[in-house]
Every structure is written in C-alpha cells, then in structure tokens.
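Each letter names a residue; structure tokens follow underneath. Both lines appear below:
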Amino acid sequence: MLTGGLAALIASLWRRGVPVIGWAELEPGVALLVEGGSIALVPRARLGERADLVADDLMFTLPRRSVFETPVDPEQVPRFTARELAWLQFVRWLGARRPEPQAGDLDRGWLPAGTGV
C-alpha cells in the first residue's frame, strides 16, 4: 500500500516532469521506477520530509519529460517486488549492451517472406 508521503512524492515528481511509473519497497528504502528504466532510491527517512524538497533533490538526476500521461491518482502507480525490479534492471542492461546491426546483416542468408522460394 502506498503511504501518504510516497504518494505526495510521486505526485510532486509528476508535476516536475519526472514520469514515475512504478515503485518497490527495498531494504534501504523505496525505489522509484522512472519511464525509460531509471531507478531512484529514496531512503526511508526521506519519506517523512516535505515531498517538494525530496522531489527537488531527485529531479536533477532523473530524466524529465515536458508532456507525459500520468494516472489520475498516485495510488494507481504499480508496486513491484524487489525481484521484479531486478528483472527490469536486467532487461534494461541487456538492451543497452546489444550491438548495433551492421549494414547487410539483416539480409544475408534470409529469403523474403511470402516468396515461396
């Protein structure tokens, strides 16, 4: 369940253009998942502080968007488990290290679809 402090922080980040799309409760604090795969760890002690001050500190290290769709209510932001969060980080890492295809790689040894050859 989302606490009042966490809901206020997510709403404050939304107002600043930081697209928080999920969160997870971890041992050291709460991880906020941001669109694009960035993750911000908020220590538990900071959740009791004013949301706008914490959001100001976080927003400079997170990607921002000028326009994005957000849920009407921060309570609708999905919660992830630590395991799901680790999986999302792995998928992001895997995508980041995938090499760019070389020219000609896509057509070498392949037949066009539907040619019957």
In short: DSSP finds three helices and four strands in the chain. The two ends are 57 Å apart (CA to CA).
